[in-house]
Specification:
2 copies of one chain form a homodimer. With 276 residues, chain A is an alpha/beta fold. The first copy, chain A, has 10 helices and 8 strands. In chain A, helix 7 packs parallel to helix 8.
Amino acid sequence: MAQPLTDTSKLCVHTITTKPWPIETAIDRFAAHGVKGMTVWRDALAGRNIAATGQRIRDAGMSVVSLCRGGFFPALTEAGRQAAIDNNRRAIDEAAALGAPLIVLVCGAAPGQPLSVSRQQIQDGIEAVLPQAAAAGVKLAVEPLHPMYADSRSAINTLEQANDICDAINSPWVGVAVDVYHLWWDPHLQAQIRRCGEAGRIFAFHICDWRTPTEDLLNDRGLMGEGCIPIRQIRGWVEETGFDSFNEVEIFSTRLWAGDQDAFLGRVVEAYLAKS
Amino acid sequence: MAQPLTDTSKLCVHTITTKPWPIETAIDRFAAHGVKGMTVWRDALAGRNIAATGQRIRDAGMSVVSLCRGGFFPALTEAGRQAAIDNNRRAIDEAAALGAPLIVLVCGAAPGQPLSVSRQQIQDGIEAVLPQAAAAGVKLAVEPLHPMYADSRSAINTLEQANDICDAINSPWVGVAVDVYHLWWDPHLQAQIRRCGEAGRIFAFHICDWRTPTEDLLNDRGLMGEGCIPIRQIRGWVEETGFDSFNEVEIFSTRLWAGDQDAFLGRVVEAYLAKS
């Protein structure tokens, strides 16, 4: 079991967690609440000067932790797969401009083809963009998604599969993002986190909670402590590998987005310290 | 890949699939549509003479395939766990009265305790009722549930886990129910079906489909062909083990329950032949 967190020095918050805020507000308010890292979702950059936005984050005393998200490589047509690769190339350019050292990959799945085919297209897509990522100094994190997203969001649904694809690609620029929401149920989680650690490939650690009942497949994540995920235990497994980067709060919640975001951010900090 | 189905001799439908119908209507209409097996949900038996209902099913030319459902063994208190065991004992009595050779177990999970604890309580609960089940000639099928139900419905979420718990209990009266909805995403599915087969423990095979998007975690299952599950491929893996019992159509769908149930049952038969 990890030690309780006593300060916010490792606290990163995703821009999507306070989705109603424009990124400029998020930068100001995150910093005011003592948040030290920001993971930027690409939609938050629409219409902005990306390099200037990255500088603004750093000027506020925060690190740019990662850019969310690349991926979605599988498609039924060659043109669709090429469009995905082109989109990931743009994401690499954006990450470089922003000063983000990492892109999180939601790998994708196409419901009209077998998962095994989607998995091969994911590997092919990552390998296609990898030289550009390495040249830009941007790492790529394969994020295994919960099996309830296997139809259309990711054919990579367990940490074992993420480890397998990283082994197959075998590049220091490709690792994994461990998100407790997607992986908490897996009886092999501790062993696969250890395997990640031995390969030096835990690039990111995401936290939130699983509510009972969960009322929406996408946008009903809980604040830490609102659900049943043993977050501190999983954080302990991750830290045992030597991971010492940020703990990233990534919450999609129609319920929580509907309230005052500054009060919510205060609750995020409290829950981070008490329940993570 | 399995051969296409050319008749309804192996078609079983769960009473919950046509939930709006009282079981008497279901018996008449299932038989009229050529359905040859019925899996009875316990709620459908409320207020009925159970033995007479079983006889009515057989008189209509159908087999009673199984009783749904037992399980839900984990609880935070000893009293809660005992109540679950008592409830499963009643289910065994009901199955015996109905003439059902099998009870499907939705094993349960208690969100306030670790999954590992719930898993042990599941094993303890099954072992507690096993002598009564064997004496009654009623088999018990552990049904691994999709990981999105790990919080409160089942701590057994993969076929590997179901195989493991069956190995641990090691009784010819305890096997598994393979449901494509819960398991289709699992990269180890074929290997674990083979393992089931070697142990002679595939007691039931359930089919439906996964829709994109799925709009409700519980009641948005699709008719075969409405989604992305490779049903025929999985049926092939199951049949390769020597399984030759019923293919059970189990669909929970607010959308499909809202329409005319006789027309829907006609679509079930069509989809069974064309898409399963």
